[in-house]
Amino acid sequence: MRIMLICIKWALTSDRVQVWSTHRIEETQVENLRQEDFPRFIADNKVALVDFHATWCGPCRAMEHVIEALRREFSGIAGIAKVDVDESPGLAKTFGIQAIPTIILFKDGKLVEQLSGSRTQDELAQKLQTLS
After folding, report:
1. In terms of Cα–Cα distance, which of 20, 9, 95, 23 is closest to 52?
2. In whole angstroms, what is the distance from residue 1 CA to residue 59 CA?
3. Whole-number Cα distances in Å, 36 to 6, 45, 71, 76
4. What structural domains and CATH numbers belong to the chain?
5. pTM of the model
């Protein structure tokens, strides 16, 4: 999902608005996969990292910035996505998710590694580097 934001700096000068500058900022969020999207995502990405999480999970929320940073760092190199276990319980069951957050790494469509619990950005980046 892409969100385009236009930032406008302005100042009020008497009875009119004066525009000083404008620029565009493009923001992309980590894709939130559902059961029906999952096979396509794995097939479309030679290397993929999928974060199984829930909105009510404190450690999962703490990992959000790590997952987002990895998405930016590995853009075009690895697919980074999330699966909400409450919205897609079938996927959680398929992969035997019993604790969240759980990170699953895929290469060429095959599960390579499954990690339970919070992880650092450096640790996950190193694993993605190795698989790329």
Report:
1. 95
2. 24
3. 33, 16, 21, 23
4. 29-131 (3.40.30.10)
5. 0.76
For 30-109, strand residue ranges (E) read: 31-33, 47-53, 79-84, 102-107
Strand partners, 25: 5
Token digits of residue 47:
């290397």
Write down the mean pLDDT value for the chain: 82
How deeply is 114 buried, as exposed, middle or buried, from its count of CB atoms within 10 A (0-12, 13-18, 19+)?
middle
Segment (H or E) for 17: strand 16-28
Residues assigned a catalytic role = 57, 60
In order along its 132 residues, the chain shows pLDDT tens digits of: 333 333 333 333 344 444 434 433 344 588 888 889 999 999 999 999 999 999 999 999 999 999 999 999 998 899 999 999 999 999 999 999 999 999 999 999 999 999 999 999 999 999 999 998
Decide: 69 and 75 in contact? Cβ < 8 Å: no
